[in-house]
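ok so I'm stuck.
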Amino acid sequence: MEKWIGDRISTFSDKNNTSIIIYPKRERWKEALLIAWVIGFTFVGFYMIYLLFFGLEAIDNSQIKGDPQEILRNQKIYLTVFIGFWAYFEYKVVYGLLWLLFGKELIKIDFEKVLIKNAIFSYGKSKKYFNDNIKKIELIEHKPFSFGFNYENAFWSKGTNSLLFDYLTKTVTFGRKLNEKDAKLLMRFMVDRVKKHSKSKK
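replied:
not stuck anymore, here's the structure
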């Protein structure tokens, strides 16, 4: 039977397993602006790459004082640095856009394990965590007014996780960009389902 937690979390449970899907937060007008920005940003980056490899020699630098070879060398250094920064932000923004449009977090709980997968379309690596080794599921405390928090939760990024549990020697986090209310409801729901499915094993 399907139930919803807030607007973004879909759950389906039966006696054998529970499936949870967390969808990205959708805001259509922001998505349209982001798509337009990505198109423009991508065009600028590829144009700079073209200039670096094919176009600099054709530029007239006669009005710039100095050695022409030194000027050309400095221009290549500038473009190389620019393209390095561009490539980083291009990857981040394009990945964030694909996540917004086609991404979701998939969580599956059964009598033995919890599977967590971040997928774009159907692509993504599923990670397995055995119930017996999962410690307390709890909320992650964030500083909502910090620069880092606001940067990581910008509309074009995947965002920070809201929940965590300890698993053997590591900490596992999940639940991207959930508000506090939905995160608490999801935490209680998962704790309940892990306990119920673990008992059904016995």
